[in-house]
Q: What sequence folds into this?
């Protein structure tokens, strides 16, 4: 039985001989390619390799060149002597090679709607394991959905409960690192951790080679150290793009307070280039700052002047976010940023919660039933203009400390804003096999 280190070192040879293999199983992480996704893919692929009789390959859905955008992952790989040169990134596992395989199976981890290469082999998908709500596009394969703080908790629980799999320290540290980073070191006050995350972390901690608190501190410090990254790199490193009808929106999570990030030199030009290169109607920035023991979240909405939608489109999105009572958003005044900038007082909610609110709004536009007048901007059409159209110009966390005088200050939102309907709750998929 190969150790984890031997398994990783054997991946380049396995990839080269893929066409000759009779049975191949690919474990695919999500496109965000964060530590949670990578840890899940590596651990699950190693588990399958240990069972024997299969060539098991973990696939990271991001280009190899983007790994430096994830300094927390690079730090942990270095600590655990995982050589990134041995790993498999997007574009390195060719469709033609998979078509030559006699029996191909695919497992999706940290997502359940196939993208990239997996979307071309949906008939080979045998399972998905995720911690999100059921999304449109999920197929008929067995799907394990459980709303935990980290998908690594679900994968780790399965491996820990498997008698034939003796978890090594490297695997335990990978999974524990993802869990503590995703749940802010299992702090209940952050609103992310569940009882299962805590229980699984307690089982992993004695096996890990780095203590839990030290692991969190080192990962968190690496993740929030953005001094060596350009604005374009920060926008790209945790980026998601969605389309609803004619609308194309990008979502970038940034590990910085946006009121500071948006003061970077040349930021307006960088935002314009980033949006134009992806043909976006709007770019949603989600910023988080965990420094000084206090969590703050902000949301900024950017619309390039060359966008196809009317200039008040991002104002419409801001109004929708303000109307969502659970986010507790307030507009900030005094900022030189050209779009709406909001303070999100409920810091327990991340991009996973913001995205469905905006998606529901865009879908309502597609259905021709926009939200109530209280949720709309005072004037201007909401859908993209045609060439000949005429366009006029969870429990809340404690509120952040009062900003300094040179920081944008919140403006009170309208009283008792109506709450938007959310996407329907999903029922969990079939239980995972033990």
A:
């Amino acid at each position: 039985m190969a150790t984890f280190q031997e398994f990783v070192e054997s991946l380049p040879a396995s990839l080269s001989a893929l066409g000759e293999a009779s049975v191949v199983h690919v474990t695919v992480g999500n496109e965000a390619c964060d530590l949670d996704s990578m840890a899940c893919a590596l651990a699950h692929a190693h588990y399958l390799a240990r069972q024997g009789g299969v060539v098991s390959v973990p696939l990271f859905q991001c280009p190899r060149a983007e790994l430096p955008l994830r300094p927390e992952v690079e730090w942990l790989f270095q600590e655990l002597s995982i050589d990134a040169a041995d790993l498999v990134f997007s574009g390195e596992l060719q469709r033609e090679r998979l078509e030559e395989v006699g029996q191909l199976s695919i497992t999706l981890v940290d997502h359940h709607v196939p993208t990239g290469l997996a979307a071309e082999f949906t008939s080979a998908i045998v399972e998905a394991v995720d911690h999100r709500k059921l999304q449109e596009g999920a197929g008929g394969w067995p799907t394990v959905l459980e709303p935990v703080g980290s998908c690594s908790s679900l994968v780790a629980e399965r491996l820990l409960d498997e008698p034939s799999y003796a978890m090594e320290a490297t695997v335990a540290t990978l999974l524990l690192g993802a869990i503590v980073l995703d749940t802010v070191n299992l702090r209940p006050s952050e609103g992310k951790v569940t009882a299962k995350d805590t229980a699984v972390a307690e089982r992993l901690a004695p096996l890990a080679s780095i203590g839990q608190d030290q692991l969190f501190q080192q990962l968190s410090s690496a993740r929030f150290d953005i001094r060596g990254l350009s604005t374009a790199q920060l926008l790209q490193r945790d980026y998601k793009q969605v389309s609803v009808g004619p609308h194309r929106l990008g979502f970038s999570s940034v590990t910085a307070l946006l009121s500071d990030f948006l003061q970077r030199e040349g930021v307006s030009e960088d935002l314009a280039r980033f949006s134009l290169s992806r043909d976006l109607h709007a770019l949603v920035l989600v910023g988080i700052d965990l420094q000084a023991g206090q969590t703050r979240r902000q949301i900024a909405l950017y619309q390039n002047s060359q966008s196809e939608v009317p200039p008040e489109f991002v104002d419409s999105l801001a109004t929708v976010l303000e109307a969502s009572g659970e986010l507790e958003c307030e507009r900030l005044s005094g900022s030189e940023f050209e779009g709406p900038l909001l303070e999100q007082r409920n810091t327990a909610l991340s991009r996973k919660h913001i995205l469905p609110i905006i998606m529901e709004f865009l879908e309502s536009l597609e259905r021709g039933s926009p939200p109530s007048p209280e949720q709309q901007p005072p004037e201007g059409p909401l859908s993209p203009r045609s060439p000949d159209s005429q366009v006029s110009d969870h429990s809340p966390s404690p509120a952040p400390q009062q900003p300094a005088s040179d920081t944008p200050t919140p403006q009170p939102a309208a009283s008792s804003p109506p709450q938007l309907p959310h996407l329907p709750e999903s029922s969990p998929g079939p239980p995972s096999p033990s």
